Amino acid sequence: xxxxxxxxxxxxxxxxxxxxxxxxxxxxxxxxxxxxxxxxxxxxxxxxxxxxxxxxxxxxxxxxxxxxxxxxxxxxxxxxxxxxxxxxxxxxxxxxxxxxxxxxxxxxxxxxxxxxxxxxxxxxxxxxxxxxxxxxxxxxxxxxxxxxxxxxxxxxxxxxxxxxxxxxxxxxxxxxxxxxxxxxxxxxxxxxxxxxxxxxxxxxxxxxxxxxxxxxxxxxxxxxxxxxxxxxxxxxxx
Length: 238
What we know:
Number of strands: 11
Order of helices and strands: EHHEHHEEHEHEEEEHHEHE
CATH topology: Carbamate kinase
Number of domains: 1
CATH architecture: 3-Layer(aba) Sandwich
Strand content: 15-25%
Shape: globular
Helix content: 25-40%
Radius of gyration: 17 Å
């Protein structure tokens, strides 16, 4: 079955909001189970998967800044939120039979391994899913940028941005029913038009290293496996 894969090693970025499902806050057990099922199918197909998860379902650094926190402290709190999400994903994935490792950019030995590039790649080679937590370990960088950076470091062939929408649209499809899906777009167009697909640093990093970004709906059953097989879905940035 692995012969059917277009992409063997991928970096999947999941937003923190993606874990909260219909809840206004926190982690939805139903939603995290659905995401885990998609990852199980992808592993069964032979993919090597690195995950980067956001923390916006628990805390956002920028929102902390609005209520008086300094930005760096808020960002560090957001990084800790990603560790909570990473540990939750680990538990559910392992209950479903996968081997995983959480690697944190901030050292916390009781909870996770410290991120070391060679160690991360070794885990992938051994068939483990790696869950890369705590962003880049630095304030002022988003988890989108962390996803792009880790993709480059581990030699991922593509960044999958798993979202709640089907891809990049000409306008907000929720507000504008006439909005059309853009099936393919260049890095330059994303940057020039300031399209909020991923932050500008992440898009630039992918552009410089020639790593395509696929934006697709992770919450439609089977979409991750289809994306790995190279089936036409979502929006590709390259």
